[in-house]
Design a protein that fits this description.
The chain has about 325 residues and is α/β, with parallel strands linked by helices. It is about 30% helix and about 20% strand. It contains 8 helices and 12 strands. The protein is globular and about 65 Å long. About 35% of the residues are buried.
Length: about 325
């Protein structure tokens, strides 16, 4: 059967390519670069020192690698929440999508409240709050109506809808969110956070092949929707047997191709999972459960190998710089 698909949209004459690039330059100027930072000052890229994590451009795929309990969800949701707040302040037509395959939408939304109102998400989950605190939480929820953080996933409210969370559903969701009026875009998808890759279930293909194909599909979607993807990836259990339990690029579970497909890779680990109070973890004394290490494993066109210690409060979905000036890592890198 003859293929009747019109492929002309893939082809650019020299004039069309130049015009498209000129429009792109105008957009970059207008939007102050249109790049997405990490919102962690000490880990942001510094041109003078050539250290830090380069801001994320449209079309890029960033992976966040960690073992269960490492803080992947907290790190990613904090990033998404801060990005949405930034877009709101810019009065932008762009939205952030958080695609959750791990938690219910209602639970995620309460993380917003925890961060905004300094109310513990754990206390809300147990229901042990005073009436005044509940009123404060409801008021906070209503105040979030205009913050462009969108969600997709399972919900208590819509539990009758038995929609499978797969690659096709993700693409359909993005098509549903992106709005056009003729050739003018009215609502853009600024960034997409996927929590997390291994929750996509194989359709019968070998696990390694399935996740390799899926990663390629996500990279394609980043280009198709001119957005950026941040994807949580579970590290394999062999990481727990390392002397220093920081995942490397090769440590994604069933994802041997992800280091090739990713434009950037970050590893996260909470030292308290592996050391007791007062013990050494890679040159720093463990002091409580709030310590988190964020390491840059890979960054296209940017520096790699540096690590950063952060103060992570999971019950309040807060992530801040930690006051540790210099850290000696076993691989020789400093921050």
């Amino acid at each position: 059967m003859k293929d009747t698909t019109d492929y002309s949209g893939l082809v650019f004459t020299p004039l069309e390519a130049s015009n498209a690039a000129e429009n792109y330059i105008d957009e970059i100027r207008k939007n102050d670069g249109d790049s997405m930072p990490l919102y962690l000052p000490r880990l942001e890229y510094d041109e003078k020192t050539n250290k830090g994590f380069l801001p994320v451009k449209r079309g890029e795929l960033i992976t966040v690698l960690g073992r269960p309990g490492s803080g992947k969800t907290g790190f990613m949701f904090h990033w998404a929440r801060r990005r949405a707040q930034d877009l709101k302040e810019q009065k932008s037509n762009k939205v952030v999508l958080y695609w959750s395959m791990e938690q219910l939408i209602e639970e995620l939304r309460l993380f917003n409240v925890a961060a905004e109102e300094n109310i513990s998400a754990s206390r809300m989950a147990t229901g042990k709050m005073q009436d005044g605190e509940w009123d404060k939480a409801v008021k906070s929820l209503r105040g979030l109506h205009t913050t462009p953080l969108w969600f997709a996933g399972k919900s208590l409210k819509r539990r009758k809808d038995k929609i499978q969370l797969n690659e096709a559903a993700l693409r359909g969701t993005l098509e549903n969110i992106e709005k056009w009026q003729g050739d003018e875009i009215k609502q853009e998808i600024d960034s997409v956070f996927i929590d997390y890759l291994q929750r996509f279930r194989s359709d019968g293909r070998d696990w390694v092949q399935f996740y390799g194909d899926l990663t390629n599909g996500l990279k394609d979607m980043a280009g198709d929707f001119a957005t950026r993807f941040v994807v949580g990836v579970q590290a394999r259990r062999e990481v727990d047997a390392k002397a220093i339990q920081i995942p490397g690029m090769e440590d994604g579970q069933w994802t041997s191709s992800i280091e090739q497909q990713s434009d950037g890779m970050l590893a996260v680990v909470r030292p308290a999972r592996y050391r007791k109070q007062g013990e050494d973890f890679d040159g720093v004394i463990v002091n409580g459960y709030r310590q988190m290490i964020i390491k840059v494993l890979k960054r296209k066109l940017g520096p790699e190998g540096t690590a950063h210690w952060a103060d992570f409060q999971p019950e309040y979905n807060r992530l801040d710089d930690m006051d540790i000036e210099t850290i000696q890592l076993k691989d020789g890198y400093h921050v």
